[in-house]
């Protein structure tokens, strides 16, 4: 089994509904994102998937949130934009891209950092689906 790992980041604001502390107020983070894609088969060039393609897909997902209020995104209008929920969101979006472009691969994990020392790692029990 191969694991391909790509990291990126985006800047965005959010707030947590019904949170009993400061995080109920609008605040921002430079969110770090790390995705792991797994698969068994390499292509004719000896690659699981081209890093360039994964980076492009990940950039498109980040652009939905970058320099925005995450709470206004359709996926987070009812769901709190916690690091946990963001990691699942990235998993589902990336899984959708893989299904259309590389159906032999799956998302192994997504890690989201909201600060340099605080992160959440989402590992789907089954394949993420959009």
Automatic annotation (TrEMBL):
<protein>
    <recommendedName>
        <fullName>6-carboxy-5,6,7,8-tetrahydropterin synthase</fullName>
        <ecNumber>4.-.-.-</ecNumber>
    </recommendedName>
</protein>
<keyword id="KW-0671">Queuosine biosynthesis</keyword>
<feature type="active site" description="Proton acceptor">
    <location>
        <position position="23"/>
    </location>
</feature>
<dbReference type="GO" id="GO:0046872">
    <property type="term" value="F:metal ion binding"/>
</dbReference>
<dbReference type="GO" id="GO:0070497">
    <property type="term" value="F:6-carboxytetrahydropterin synthase activity"/>
</dbReference>
<dbReference type="InterPro" id="IPR038418">
    <property type="entry name" value="6-PTP_synth/QueD_sf"/>
</dbReference>
<dbReference type="InterPro" id="IPR007115">
    <property type="entry name" value="6-PTP_synth/QueD"/>
</dbReference>
<keyword id="KW-0479">Metal-binding</keyword>
<comment type="pathway">
    <text>Purine metabolism; 7-cyano-7-deazaguanine biosynthesis.</text>
</comment>
<dbReference type="Pfam" id="PF01242">
    <property type="entry name" value="PTPS"/>
</dbReference>
<keyword id="KW-0862">Zinc</keyword>
<feature type="binding site">
    <location>
        <position position="29"/>
    </location>
    <ligand>
        <name>Zn(2+)</name>
    </ligand>
</feature>
<feature type="active site" description="Charge relay system">
    <location>
        <position position="114"/>
    </location>
</feature>
<dbReference type="GO" id="GO:0008616">
    <property type="term" value="P:tRNA queuosine(34) biosynthetic process"/>
</dbReference>
<comment type="similarity">
    <text>Belongs to the PTPS family. QueD subfamily.</text>
</comment>
<feature type="binding site">
    <location>
        <position position="14"/>
    </location>
    <ligand>
        <name>Zn(2+)</name>
    </ligand>
</feature>
<feature type="active site" description="Charge relay system">
    <location>
        <position position="67"/>
    </location>
</feature>
<feature type="binding site">
    <location>
        <position position="27"/>
    </location>
    <ligand>
        <name>Zn(2+)</name>
    </ligand>
</feature>
<keyword id="KW-0456">Lyase</keyword>
């Amino acid at each position: 089994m191969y694991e391909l790992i790509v990291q990126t980041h985006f800047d965005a604001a959010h707030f947590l509904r019904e949170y009993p502390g400061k995080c109920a107020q609008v605040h921002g983070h430079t969110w770090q994102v790390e995705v792991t894609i797994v698969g068994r088969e390499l292509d004719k060039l000896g690659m699981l998937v081209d890093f360039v393609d994964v980076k492009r897909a990940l950039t498109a997902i980040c652009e939905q949130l970058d320099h925005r209020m995450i709470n206004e995104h359709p996926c987070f209008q009812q769901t709190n934009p916690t690091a946990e929920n963001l990691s699942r969101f990235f998993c589902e979006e990336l899984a959708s891209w893989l299904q259309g472009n590389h159906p032999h691969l799956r998302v192994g994990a997504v890690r989201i950092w909201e600060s340099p020392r605080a992160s959440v790692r989402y590992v789907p029990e089954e394949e993420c689906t959009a």
